[in-house]
Amino acid sequence: MDPSHIRNFAIIAHIDHGKSTLSDRLLELTGSLTTREMQAQVLDAMDLERERGITIKAHTVRMMYKADDGDMYQLNLIDTPGHVDFSYEVSRSLASCEGALLVVDASQGVEAQTLANAYLAISNGLEILPIINKIDLPSADIERTKAMIEKSVGLPADDAIAVSAKTGLNVASILEAVVTLLPPPKGNADAPLQALIFDSWFDAYRGVIVLARIINGKLRKGMKIRLMSNGKTFEVESMGVMTPKPVVLEELSAGEVGFFVATIKNVADTKVGDTITEDARPCADMLPGFEDIKSMVFAGLYTVDSHEHALLRDALEKLRLNDASFSFEPESSAALGFGFRCGFLGLLHLEIIQERLEREYSLDLITTAPGVRYKITMTDGSELEVDNPSRWPDPTEIETVEEPVIVAKILTNEEYVGNILKLVEDKRGRQKNIEYVSETRVMLTYELPLNEIVLDFYDKLKSVSRGYASLDYNLAGTWISPMVKMDILIGGEPVDALSIIVHRDFAYDRGKALVSKMRELIPRQMFEVAIQAAIGAKVIARETVTAIRKNVIAKCYGGDISRKRKLLDKQKEGKKRMKRIGKVDIPQEAFLAVLKVGED
Ligand SMILES: Nc1nc2c(ncn2[C@@H]2O[C@H](COP(=O)(O)OP(=O)(O)OP(=O)(O)O)[C@@H](O)[C@H]2O)c(=O)[nH]1
Q: SUPFAM superfamilies of this UniProt entry (predicted)?
């Protein structure tokens, strides 16, 4: 199609402000879906996404829209995820668009990720259309929301379109605005092919699927293409667009987005951000790529049943094909046996991977306490990176430890500032800036150690602000900090999988809280179990799980075999998520006790 009749746009918003609901509504309006096909949030294709109501992967959908000028327009909508853990996906999507709809919930107003995403879009040179959503809510305040958009985002909001994605009110005017206010793509369909890979994944039936934006030229079925970063060549087998059902096409041309399948066997060859060109007639320049995604949070994954280790490896390999932001390598633990050290973008990402492993691959897993990666300079001048506490060097050989630091931007109402300041100070935060972005909204900018954020910061922030605070963060260098390894001893034996890295000044309190939490989580056994926290040889906290006599069969008064079996089965069920360490059964929760410290 002639690029003047194409519009590529993303929808960006703070989490829960209604992107997915609005996307569905736009699809419905353009007739991309029949009512029978209309299922809540079709864009969130994966079951898990639907259940949790979050969008993990960016998706793109083509809609055809007949505008008021009587012409047909091709609108390519790129959905983006909203959770902080996945903000890198947002930048990828934006690189393939000329415009963005900035959705703001009229009852909540501008939140931290509204700002973060809007700035990303502005820095990518996108034209932004503010959309004020949820105007059906009694608490909606359109004028106030407009004022906030102008003051904090710095965008004119007079013409912001006020809609209810839920009821459909006024949503149709968004389509007309997309056509009249967002710019069409530039690009020359006759030039050599130059296309950007902005996503790729492995599909069990079709192999590697690449999502691409054609900048110049044409991509045709049967064409021999070259990936410019590695020089590899492949033949295009099929291509198409999602409407959101897949529709097969013969070619994609300048300005369009779509997917293609080629003779690519390995998803690692299709690096996101790479440039695709035609082998016979290559373009001159590569497009600017994307930064490599880095894992920020690390945890060990082990199977409860050690025989399932190979299954876990297979499952991890399969998941990794779809998710380049996730990494793993084998590790072993004296307590848990063979497992994998996995890297994630954040805690939510960890939870999602763990849940998928359990659900899609029926694995019972033990996850160890999540932590970050430290850079250690040794007294002999050598350097190493450690993300696994059991690899922590002998303290006498450590010169300095550098821990990753983030810059967090927290947006909240003024009445919660006091609570939040206390929270960030408790988490070793250093203040950078505090400013009012509207009469009652305050933006706090703090440097915080990632290691403190990983644990429970997000949940704590929500609770101290009653949900009226939002967070966005970026990695911002390192601090030299006195970090120490804290071991946990169960029945006098150190359990390597329970060790964590803590700041020396916080070790005592953290140790006390941790062993007391573990005492609640470790069930009473037939004998007394001591739980201790220690730094080196020094025990800093201790609790005891008292013994019980537990003989379920005694209750059966002899004869009744079926009841006896039922009881034994029940007991077995209860043990499912237990890992026997030495003589003690430790439940999964105890390995994650560090996340639960401070909860009731
Ligand atoms: N009352 C009302 N609720 C809405 C409206 N739009 C969306 N919602 C609700 O707001 C919640 C979040 O909507 P989603 O569309 O899932 O939000 P999202 O921004 O896509 O969230 P993520 O995909 O997780 O980033 C859902 O419960 C929707 O039903 C609206 O116009 N009015």
A: EF-G C-terminal domain-like, P-loop containing nucleoside triphosphate hydrolases, Translation proteins
Specify the fold of 3-181.
Rossmann fold (3.40.50)
Whether 32 has a binding-site annotation, put simply, is no
CATH number of 194-278: 2.40.30.10
| Domain residue extents for the chain | 3-181, 194-278, 297-368, 375-481, 485-596
Question: What class does CATH assign to 297-368?
Answer: alpha beta
- pLDDT score of 203 more than 80: no
What pTM was computed for the model? 0.70
d(CA 22, ligand 1 centre) in Å: 8
Residue 17 in marked binding region: yes
pLDDT tens, position by position, 497-524: 889 999 999 899 989 988 998 888 888 8
**Degrees (nearest 5) of the Cα angle 334, 547, 511?**
55
ipTM of the complex as predicted: 0.97
Q: Calculate Rg over the CA atoms of the chain.
A: 27
Q: How do residues 267-316 score in pLDDT, each as one tens digit? A: 778 887 889 999 999 999 988 877 667 788 899 999 988 888 999 999 99
Q: What is the DSSP string of 496-556?
A: GGG-EEEEHHHHHHHHHHHHHHHHHHSPP-SS-EEEEEEETTEEEEEEEEPP----GGGGG
Does 90 contact ligand 1 (Cβ within 6 A)?
A: no
Instruction: For domain 375-481, give the fold.
Output: Alpha-Beta Plaits (3.30.70)
In this chain, the answer to whether the domains covering 3-181 and 375-481 adopt an identical fold is: no
Check whether 19 is labelled as a binding-site residue.
yes
Tell the burial category of 524 from Cβ atoms under 10 Å away from its Cβ (0-12, 13-18, 19+): middle
Residue indicated by tokens 């899609």:
360
The Å distance, Cα 41 to ligand 1 centre, comes to 10
CATH level 2 (architecture), domain 485-596: 2-Layer Sandwich (3.30)
3-state helix, strand, coil in the chain (%, to 5): 30, 35, 35
Quote the CA–CA distance of 486 and 497 in Å, as a whole number: 11
Q: How many residues does the chain have?
A: 600
Structure confidence by residue, pLDDT tens digits, 47-67: 544 444 444 444 788 999 999
The answer to the question of whether 18 is labelled as a binding residue is yes
Structure tokens belonging to residue 135: 């105007």
CA 53 to ligand 1 centroid distance, Å: 9
Which residue(s) pair with 50 in the sheet? Answer: none
